[in-house]
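Backbone shapes recur. Consider a single case.
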Amino acid sequence: MRRAARAACSYDADAADGGLMSIVMGLLGELSRIGRLASGGYDRRAWTGADLDCRHWFVQCADALDLEVETDRNGNLWAWWGADTGTSALVVGSHLDSVLAGGAFDGPLGIASAFAAIAQLRRDGYEPSRPVAVAVFADSEGARFGVEQIGSRLMTGALPAEVALALRDEGGTAMADAVTGAGLDPGRMGRDPARLARIGEVIELHIEQGRLPTRDGAHEGLAAAGAAIGVAERIWPHGQWRVDIDGRQDHGGTSAMQGRKDPVTGLANVVLAVRRAAVAHGAMATVGDLRIEPGSPSTIAATARLWIDARAGDEARIRRLLRDVRRMSGFDPVQEAWTAGTTFDPALTAGLAAALGDVPVLPAGAGHDAGVFASAGIPAAMILVRNRSGVTHSPAEHADEADCEAGVDALTTAIRVRSRAASVRVRG
């Protein structure tokens, strides 16, 4: 693997006079040098050289802000601001890993905005009355080992360590070996009750993904609502399913057409069935990964395998979609991952929306680390920054500078309000 050149953190206290956007754009600009693909987008899959360079950049930025940095036993990074008063912490942040050929804002915008917000608050002479942590959650995208939000799921116990460590990437590398190579001890990974007890609230800022309907149903996404920012009230249920199709390997130029057992024709039937069923049931589904073996143009394949990703506003639609895929294709998808619908803390979400000026409230179609903590019973909320392109997990993903600035202002307000909120003693 060719290692990307490490980027130095661009934060400079003397440059803070340039305003929040000079900080955010400078930080995102530094990150843009890591994992960039010649074809467009980024490849920062978990525990690769590019991902480790992003983590190194985070440590540099935290040091520049005089934040205390630590890595927990599940590989999540924490940069702490404020004295440990024995009260529960306010956690902000997101992730730095990416999908293959992902965009520049998905994850990094939340980290850069958190650093910029803290820089601004410090400039204002503000001191939090409870600890504030900027967190980078490890392997959030699931692009390498096939499971999303691995770092936060391990920490909360939603994903057993023995299951996670046995996962393998396309090259056959086990996650246990990948994290060992990054300097972690796989034997210590798993639920972390002491750290969970320190967390009082989680607020994650993230670029808007897709154009989902606002709570009142009047608008499809923030662009239609004419709003630079919004808050998420819930995450749609979603999951992944695998379909394995057996064939009979043979020569494509000598085997009679009528006698062939070609698994790719079955694969094509499943792909089309997924599309038709998603449209019929008002769901969102795709086949974004498929593998044909041995993969030679002149060879009838021995096996074909594909993965279905399906999401909807309610679980019943997803189950009906899968039922129709079985009926139309004749193949039975095997569930590999499932995340039930997640509701963010109603009081925290309502208070955040009010503090930010009664911004639009809408659902999120993608999974997020904040949702993992919400499912674990920790109050969590999300700030969404308008994505004018409506496209994500793609180089076309985009947020205007003005909208990013509105996002940083919103996060700054959120930290100011919530770090002064009545906080409870550390649990346990």
The chain has two domains: 13-236+341-418, 239-339. Residues 1-5 have pLDDT under 50 and may be disordered.
